[in-house]
Amino acid sequence: MKPYKTFCCPFFLTVRVSSSQASTCNLVQSFKEIKAEQKRKIKMRNQLSLDEDENDPSASVFYWWRLANDFDDIKLDPLNLFNLKPRIRVLREMERLAMVASEGLDEFRHKLHNYRSGDLWVPTGGIKKEDMDIPLIVTILLVGFCGSGKSSLLNLMYSVLGRSGLIPFAQTSENSSNHPTMFMEEHNILRSMRSGFCVYDSRGLDYDHVEDGLEEVTQWMTDGVHHNQLCVRSGEESFMENDAEIVASMRSSSRFMKRRVNCAMVVANVAEIYRALKAGDWKPLEATKELFLSPALRRCNENPILILTHGETLSTEQRINGRLKICEVLGISETNGVYDIVCLTEYGILAEESDPVTAYSITEAIYRGLLIADRSHLPKERIQDWLMLLLSLLMRFLSLLFEFLAQLFSMLGERVK
DSSP readout, 45-105? Predict the structure, then answer.
């Protein structure tokens, strides 16, 4: 049996490789070397200082983007802001999040805890707020492919907003059983009876059956969703009949209230997509594009919010390049409505204490989703509207009837002649 050496990587993971593998693997570095290199670069750039404690492993997570080769280029002439390269825009966006994270987190947390459905609605079209069809609870739907990190993202939301610590409220794919979760789950991430919004965790889609997945997503957005809603796909009927738990859940799920989806967040595994592209496989990126650009997910002529996860498993350059490539293919801005989130609760780490940028980013993403949701509310359907609809249908029917009679009598007249 070969001896093993243990290396600590900068994302709090412990990697064990054999001594023969350690000699050939040039990507694995000791934690002290990585931390020393990061401190050297940050001191050269005269940016925010990091903790000097040698035993603090979280220092390598705080400002990962500052290890980029062209980080110094973000200090440019303000007159050239419109000519910035996409990479520089991403670096400046990450710096913006870092600057506002400490104070902005508490501000957004306060706003979200006091939010009530419709609070962010603004008058448009000359319609009063009381004439708008505003639900009691705004619903945000997480969609993505299997392993994208939707459930891990929910656990992070609970930790940051619900002050739940490291208690998992959503079952991740790593901790699930042999068969995937087949139910929609409603989550009150604030853990408050007065919460004005909820977040739904959906079943992951399949890269090999994108069309079926898009039809399922369209049905969720059109017909609404409810807690414990069963999501059965082709070929799973026999499995469903033999599972007593699923049968019992089906009997009780009809009692839950159906909610209209007001905003969607697309969760994508940037590490999986980047590695697939490097291997020449475009399937994950093309499938993500089809999902993101699905007309059913658009609200108020705005794209859904894009959440990139698992970026911590990539190097700094790979992480930035992966984000740029995804945004380029999707045809969207690299900085507007796109968030790079590290689901630290998976590693047993509190985001608020160890990575305030991640904690702030998830609260800003939720607040942006509520802004989109409150702008997408439609006017209430009045009795006059129903009467006008019935009248228009009646007039359409009469016009078709008279058209048919005209053709009929024309044919009879020709025969008589």
Answer: HT-------TT-TTHHHHTGGGGSTTGGGGS--GGGGGG--HHHHHHHHHHHHHHHHHHHH
Can you read off the two tokens belonging to residue 188? Answer: 């009150």
- Binning the chain into helix, strand and coil, the percentages to the nearest 5 are 50, 10, 35
Residue 97: name the closest of 66, 75, 72, 70 by CA.
66
AA identity, residue 244: A
What is the distance between the alpha carbons of residues 352 and 364, in angstroms, rounded to a whole number? 14
Q: Distance between CA 189 and CA 155 in Å, rounded?
A: 8
Cα–Cα dist 213/203, whole Å: 10
pLDDT band, residue 65 (cuts 50/70/90):
very high
CB 306 within 8 A of CB 266: yes
pLDDT surpasses 90 at 16: no
CA atoms in the 13 A half-sphere facing the CB of 133: 10
Q: Which helix (H) or strand (E) holds 5?
A: strand 4-8
pTM of the model: 0.77
C-alpha gyration radius of the chain: 26
The residue among 166, 169, 165 whose CA lies nearest residue 189 is 169
- The residue to which tokens 């505003």 are assigned: 134
pLDDT over 90 at 34, yes or no: no
Count the Cβ atoms, other than its own, within 10 Å of residue 417.
Answer: 5
